[in-house]
Amino acid sequence: MIETFISTLEFWHWFIAGVAFMVLELLLPGVFFLWMGLSALAVGAIAFFWPGFPWQFQLVTFAALSLVSVICYRNWQKKHPVESADPTLNRRGAQYVGRTVTITEVLDGNRGRAKLGDSQWLVVNQAATPLNKDEQMVVTDVQGSTLVVKSPEK
Q1: What is the percentage of the chain residues whose pLDDT exceeds 70?
Q2: How far is it, in rounded angstroms, from Cα 114 to Cα 49?
């Protein structure tokens, strides 16, 4: 049954497969089925203009076009990554770089705590000098859950 179906592939089978792959891309995004859908549409177009296009070559052409298009897209994607509108969205501490904080508690030497927003953060002085309570410091970096601070430039 399947052998009979495969041996009688027509251009419209490929068009239906192409649309089905595009619908799958909408349901399961990942930019994978898109290229398979475009490959199926291309094989359908070839089969439309070349009615005697053997089914073996149709399948090989589809597989080759799908593979090449996915690989080419992945290589292009690596060279042209998508820029985020908010690159620090999921890195909460990175959002605080450049902000001024007030030291609320000195723990030991150059380590302490500062309140930022509704949270208490552990801070460490970049200059390795002792912190003072109520001192204003600028956040320069984040190391895990610790803010690295320095004295503001005057």
Answers
A1: 89
A2: 72
- Token pair recorded at residue 10: 């027509």
* pLDDT, the chain, mean: 85
pTM > 0.70: yes or no: no
SS (H, E, C) 76-143: HHHHCCCCCCCCCCCCHHHHHCCCEEEEEEEEECCEEEEEECCEEEEEEECCCCCCCCCCEEEEEEEE
Q: What is the dihedral of CA 9, 12, 17, 18, to 10 degrees?
A: 130
Name 141's bridge partners.
148
101: β partners: 137
pLDDT value of position 89 = 65
- Say how far apart CA 136 and CA 150 lie, in whole Å: 9
N-term to C-term CA, the chain: 83
